[in-house]
Write a structure and sequence with these properties.
Rossmann fold; 2 domains; nine-stranded mixed beta sheet; 48% helix; globular
């Protein structure tokens, strides 16, 4: 097998029928990736539909303009699922999708055998402005964002006796949130949770669902690329953390953050990921984000995110901004429209962030400066 193998390679040689005894971390990523295909646009009565994984894959392949809708890796992925023996008996049901002004969310359930065991996969951010705007609200929503609340309600209505949860990016965060927001009866049905580079939550949200978070520790597996950035945002996820070797696809050559976050970049060997260590860059980003989250109040984070949205950052990330001129105009208008009292709070947050960044810079230099070199001048320069 090629050393640089991803989930598409896994689909080529994984021919044993999926059961509860051989379900693994790669299967979890397969279902997470499958949830990104827009079943709500492909199946007219999707909420009532029950369809096997290969049958659904065939429907995706027969979409008009299929080759232009999906990248090459996504085309290969779905074509292999259409012929898959491993997932031939897996039935997709309970498909749900919401996309409103403040919500971008989708999920489905896959029955993997007749013994009442199911996998719930939740979709991550779809790349739209709505999706990114909701991501930012994770920083201050203490009861739950629209997607988190939808995730909780969805899990509550699934009657399977044993449940695996899985999701990539915001989908991973949503399955974790659904678990901690649920009561003890629901939580007892959850066998394992797989989160693929999904971010954490704000401290106040975690405190509101403390019982669930305490139990999450023993069931959650976090899989991050070695250079993880998105998965390090907000409060650290509990549970076990594994770092994966990645090979960024050419399509992401000039988008390194998106490239290492891409599920097709995760390297696979057998039925496991190729593990590595977290890079110093990822650790540094994590420390900076933790410092910002832990040293700001919820109201400060609220005003910060309101400002971020006002100046058009979600639209800029999603590509909906309409060019550099529009982006600059949006930014200027956003700054002008920010009330004076909010500007004062933002100034306090930025000053606190800079001070924390300087402190962390000093600590990093103290830990990593080569022995025998005089680091006093360098440390002084960061003051």
């Amino acid at each position: 097998m090629n050393y640089f193998s991803n989930i598409n390679t896994y689909l080529s040689y994984a021919v044993t029928r999926l059961t509860t005894s051989n379900y693994n971390e790669i299967d979890a990523l397969v279902f997470s990736q499958l949830s990104y295909y827009p079943f709500e646009q492909i199946i007219s009565d999707f909420e009532r539909c029950q369809i096997s994984v290969p049958e659904f894959a065939n429907l995706v392949m027969h979409q008009q303009d299929f080759s232009n809708l999906y990248s090459q890796d996504k085309q290969i992925f779905i074509s292999k699922l259409a012929q898959s023996k491993r997932y031939a008996n897996c039935i997709i049901r309970h498909m749900r999708a919401e996309k409103e002004e403040n919500i971008q969310w989708a999920a489905f359930t896959v029955d993997i055998n007749s013994a009442g065991t199911a996998v719930i996969a939740m979709r991550g951010t779809d790349g739209t402005t709505i999706g990114w705007a909701e991501n930012f609200r994770l920083a201050y929503q203490v009861i739950g964002t629209g997607a988190q609340l939808e995730s909780f309600r969805y899990l509550k209505n699934i009657t399977a006796k044993r449940i695996y949860l899985t999701g990539h990016s915001k989908g991973g965060s949503n399955v974790c949130s659904a678990y901690v927001m649920s009561n003890a009866y629901i939580r007892d049905k959850i066998v394992r949770i797989d989160n693929f580079d999904g971010p954490g939550v704000n401290p106040e949200f975690a405190a509101n669902y403390a019982d669930g978070y305490e139990e999450l520790e023993s069931k959650l597996n976090n899989f991050y690329p070695g250079d993880s950035i998105i998965g390090q945002l907000l409060q650290d996820n509990p549970g076990k953390s594994f770092y994966i070797q990645t090979k960024v696809r050419d399509v992401y050559a000039h988008k390194p953050i998106s490239g290492q976050h891409d599920p097709f970049a995760f390297l696979v060997k057998g039925d496991q990921f190729l593990k590595t260590k977290q890079t110093e860059l990822s650790k540094g980003i994590n420390d900076i984000v933790d410092g910002l989250v832990n040293k700001t109040t919820n109201i400060q984070r609220y005003y910060l995110i309101q400002f971020v949205q006002r100046i058009g950052i979600p639209a800029l990330i999603s590509g909906d901004e309409g060019g550099a001129v529009a982006a600059v105009a949006h930014f200027v208008c956003g700054v002008i429209q920010t009330p004076p009292e909010e500007k004062k709070i933002l100034f306090q947050v930025i000053c606190s962030f800079i001070k924390n960044l300087i402190r962390q810079g000093k600590e990093w230099i103290a830990q990593h400066w080569p022995k025998g070199y005089n680091k006093s001048n360098v440390i002084q320069a960061t003051i």
